[in-house]
Specification:
single chain, alpha/beta, eleven-stranded mixed sheet, two-stranded antiparallel sheet, 12 helices, 21% strand, disordered N terminus
Length: 390
């Protein structure tokens, strides 16, 4: 049983850091969503793979500290992690004796790997070659902060953010660490990746934001792609906490590399296991913070959850704001939950006129109750976590 592994001991989100299409900083993420503005915009540089040079995506602009590496990936990763650590420290968190790190990603350093073959013909100086390794950026971060707990990467496709915080909770509950920095990164929007997601039939590039992604609505066209690096400090300490992570679970459909199993059995089992692990009932859930890609299969699965499992919950769907950030998607939305608890209101995009009646329509004052965060990844990955106020 999943609950026996996690021991149902809550942990706290004590710090948040974010680099997104809105800019470099968690405040910009919250302000953009709270103002009802989408980060999806026309972005140039795609003529090599599209008929037009500009496509609608939510891409991270250049920024960060050049000393953190030569790529946007490593600079964004470090910026988000530092912001989360400094945020937690400013709110009263004190690192314990063993701080670990979980890095969630699907595609790492895509720009550097492309340049290795296309520009440098497979030959790089040793230091530059080491920048391509997924261990390098997080190893340097551990050295900078003197953190000596375990450090590793996890990947569950679009559910990687949920998988990362559940891994951190496992470590904390097992006594392997005193605290965990969780960082998730996906900066993969080069022309090749965007083109292939479009060709899969799920990503759209000719319209943006609210005109494209309309979750829980038959008028949705799919999603725009986005980038993000998001970080948290998770701890058994309650000081300054944004939210509590009560429990969670993961399952796999064992069905298809792309499609969701149409019976939704494993999606529902994942949610049932998460509720059991958290020690709560479905009636306690006030909000389903959904994966909500605006694709027909995802909408069908999560509508089934709304209509048959968490029947008292309102749905929250924020991908029209941030784009679909792939390996960092769940983490962007977890950050949204933390910031919503902090501000006492939920930043939600406008709902389509034909959307599910329980989908929130614009910014809304929070009501009492728990949040269930679902994330469904390619390959049948189902993840769910349960959160509450601190």
């Amino acid at each position: 049983m999943v609950s026996s592994l996690l021991q149902s001991t809550p942990v706290w989100f004590c710090g948040v850091g974010a680099v997104t299409g809105y800019g470099w900083g968690a405040k910009l993420l919250w302000d953009g969503m709270a103002d009802g503005v989408s980060a999806v915009r026309l972005t140039p540089g795609f003529r090599s793979h599209f008929e037009t040079d500009e496509v609608y995506i939510a891409q991270i602009e250049e920024g960060g500290d050049p000393d953190d590496g030569s790529s946007r990936f490593s600079r964004a990763l470090n910026a988000a992690a530092r912001e989360a650590i400094d945020d937690a420290s400013g709110r009263g968190w004190v690192p314990g004796s063993s701080v670990g790190l979980v890095h969630a990603f699907v595609l790492g350093e895509v720009d550097l790997w492309k340049d290795l073959y296309v520009v440098h013909h497979g030959v790089r100086p040793r230091k530059k070659y080491m920048e391509l390794m997924p261990s390098t950026a997080v190893s340097l971060l551990m050295q900078e902060r003197g953190f000596t707990g375990p450090c590793m990467g996890v990947s569950a496709m679009c559910g990687s953010g949920n998988a990362a915080v559940l891994t951190a909770k496992l470590w904390l509950n097992a006594g392997l660490v005193t605290d965990v920095v969780v960082v998730t990164s996906d900066l993969s929007l080069n022309p090749e990746n965007v083109r292939n997601f479009r060709d899969l039939g799920v990503a759209k590039v000719d319209t943006g934001g609210f005109a494209t992604c309309r979750p829980f609505s038959p008028s949705s066209r799919g999603f725009n792609m986005g980038e993000a690096s998001v970080a948290f400090v998770l701890s058994g300490q309650a000081e300054g906490g944004y939210a509590r992570l009560l429990g969670g679970a993961m399952t796999n459909d064992a069905y298809h590399v792309v499609s969701i199993a149409p019976d939704h059995d494993q999606v529902k089992r994942c949610v049932s296991d998460a509720l059991a692990d958290a020690g709560v009932s479905a009636s306690d859930i006030a909000y389903l913070n959904a994966h909500a890609t605006g694709t027909k299969q995802c909408d069908a699965a999560e509508t089934d959850l709304l209509d048959t499992v968490v029947i008292n919950a309102d749905a929250v769907a924020t991908k029209p704001f941030t784009g679909h950030c792939q390996g960092a998607a769940a983490a962007v939305e977890l950050a949204g939950v933390c910031l919503a608890y902090e501000h006492g209101e939920i930043a939600s995009p406008p709902a389509a006129p034909d959307a599910h009646p329980r989908l929130l329509d614009g910014k809304t004052t929070m009501r009492d109750g728990l949040t269930l965060k679902t994330a469904l990844g390619m390959g049948g990955h189902n993840t769910a976590v349960v959160m509450s106020t601190p």
